[in-house]
Design a protein that fits this description.
The structure is a homodimer. By secondary structure, chain A is an alpha+beta fold. Chain A has two domains: 73 residues, Winged helix-like DNA-binding domain superfamily/Winged helix DNA-binding domain (Arc Repressor Mutant, subunit A, Orthogonal Bundle), CATH 1.10.10; 42 residues, no CATH class. The first copy, chain A, is built from four helices and seven strands, in the order ααβααββββββ. In chain A, strands 1-3-2 form a three-stranded antiparallel β-sheet. The first copy, chain A, has a three-stranded mixed β-sheet with strand order 5-4-7, with no helix packed on it. In chain A, a hairpin with a 4-residue loop joins strand 4 and strand 5. In chain A, helix 1 packs across helix 2 and helix 3 crosses helix 4. The N and C termini of chain A lie far apart (35 Å). The interface between A and B is medium-sized, with 34 and 34 residues. Bound molecules: manganese (II) ion (2 copies) and zinc ion (2 copies). The site of one zinc ion (ZN) has 9 residues of chain B, from strand 4 and strand 5. The first copy, chain A, binds a DNA duplex through helix 4.
DNA sequence: TTTATAGTTTATAACGATTCTAAAGTGAAA
DNA sequence: TTTCACTTTAGAATCGTTATAAACTATAAA
């Protein structure tokens, strides 16, 4: 992802390109593979990777702005912390509870043959498949 | 479910049949259909249904003992509250985010045709299918 | 019966993730 | 320079959950 795209992510999230926000955006979006993280893990990685300091509130605010703009998604994982995902396409996950690690599964790698009808008056918004792993 | 079964649930959870625990167990297990709840919702329903008072700690402790004994399961739902489920068999869920309501799907109502191989050295423990609903 | 004792309930404190707040900082425009 | 809207930040507040410790209860030994 090129630098211009970083600024586009920020602009389309309603965020001015401040030092902290650019660092966060670069860290999240300037990579090839999907990245799954919690606010806490992101903070630790940012501290290691950069020389800047980040208040937790800044990270929360920035991550939420990206999420609201559709540049990040949220993955539901057992436990108290919220997991975010740079992969915003429709996809599924392996979850390794030993390492608390999420692994992407492309939507086309899961084929569902049979699914019940949605309850009366309701429609299916999306289907999430979550595969728990063991050793 | 007969009264004797209530006492069996308690016994097999390592819980003596005190007034509060019997009320909780009856409320949870003396019903035909699956019941999904949070500790908060259970507390409100207990207060309505019975004349006893329940400290939150008692409900937490009792629910956790049932869960540890395998008489309740936990369902992962977006949001901060923990959802419990009287259905401990392998099954799936519809989730209606309008009403925060979970609806059971029998395991045999979902047929998965294709699934990726588990990552190196890992095995699949179980598969959870979560179907989000909209109006 | 009393007493001992193990287990239980309860109110409240502590905890941890997240959100809120208000003060200090920043930077572009006037 | 001064202004002013926006940003960062530290710390307070919130909320679900867990821990603690004191009061209570039931059973059984003395
Ligand atoms: Mn979660
Ligand atoms: Mn949850
Ligand atoms: Zn993902
Ligand atoms: Zn269920």
């Amino acid at each position: 992802m090129k630098k211009i795209d970083i600024f586009k992510k920020l602009r389309t999230s309603g965020l001015r390109p401040t030092k902290q926000r650019v660092e966060i955006a670069k860290f999240l979006f300037d990579r090839d593979k999907t990245f799954h993280f919690t606010v806490e893990s992101l903070n630790k990685l940012l501290e290691k990777k950069t020389t800047s300091k980040f208040a937790l509130a800044t990270i929360y605010n920035t991550v939420h702005a990206f999420k609201d703009a559709g540049h990040l998604s949220e993955v539901e994982v057992r436990g108290k912390k919220t997991y975010f995902d740079t992969n915003v396409s429709n996809h599924h996950h392996f979850y390794d509870s030993e390492t608390s690690e999420l692994i992407d599964i492309n939507a086309n790698e899961v084929v569902i043959q049979k699914i019940p009808k949605a309850p009366n008056g309701k429609k299916i918004k999306n289907i999430e498949v979550f595969i728990n792993l063991k050793n």
